[in-house]
Amino acid sequence: MSKVGAAHNVRVLGSGKTTIVLGHGFGTDQSVWRHLVPHLVDQYRVLLYDNMGAGTTNADHYDFDRYSTTGLEGHVSDLITILDEFNVGKCIFVGHSLSPLAAMIASISRPDMFHKVIILSSTPRDVEHCGLQMWTRAGTSRPVSCSTGWKTNYKTTIRGMPKFAIGSDSSVAVQEFTQMLESLRPDITLSTIRALHKYDVRPLLSQVTVPCHIIHSSKDNGVPVAAAEYLHQHLGGKSVLEVMPVEGHLPHLSSPEITNQVLLRHIHLDIADRA
Questions:
Q1: Pick the catalytic residue: 249, 252, 254, 255?
Q2: Active site residue 200
Q3: What are 141-153's pLDDT values in tens digits?
Q4: Rounded to 5 degrees, what are φ and ψ at 238?
Q5: What is the rounded CA–CA span in Å between residue 18 and residue 183?
Q6: Whole-number Å distance between alpha carbons of 187 and 22
Q7: Which member of 8, 122, 220, 254 is catalytic?
Q8: Which of 76, 87, 104, 209 is the most exposed place for a label (fewest CB within 10 A)?
């Protein structure tokens, strides 16, 4: 395997004409898609990868300047490199949280790489009312700032975050997310949190012209539906928004039966094909 493929644990499954790329969000890795992958491999070529800094990647490869001082730019560059390396063109990108934002930004300079982007539980700006400040309160008794909360209450926050994020009584999903979070190296996690606190893709949304399918839980403790509505209203190309009757920031992990049906429908149908 190539150097970039090994660094990001790239896996390619199936052999269809169309490639589906699955991107995970903060605190997880590509295993979070285990419920969806079996529904794809008979019809599509499926590419999975891990964002640098995930617990499954080699921490020695994490460049703190690259990923903490430039917001999403490091992940955007990584994604373009992966898609080029594996000859991916006009893919269907399905991403959770931060990954679809990286795909949208990548599509501005490389629209040839994307047929459409499917956006699950994402927000254009992860601060204050729709992001980090809520995450930092997950395991604490009072609101704290982003940097102070994670530095001084790291273990408490990590323990409280899964149940807060899942938002339902799915003990299996809480346990899975807990294991993924605990595999993160603390200094890399804090670096990622700093990057999350900085990013703001709102000025770029009008330049995103590839079709975008926005999917959101009706109740997400970390990201309100208003964030999904903002994306829908400000993207430069065609977009569609569907709010699912499920709870939690990781519905593909906590409510896979409903979420898979919705994702598969958006994968199979383009916006022009939808009623």
A1: 249
A2: no
A3: 333 344 455 666 7
A4: -70, 140
A5: 33
A6: 26
A7: 220
A8: 87
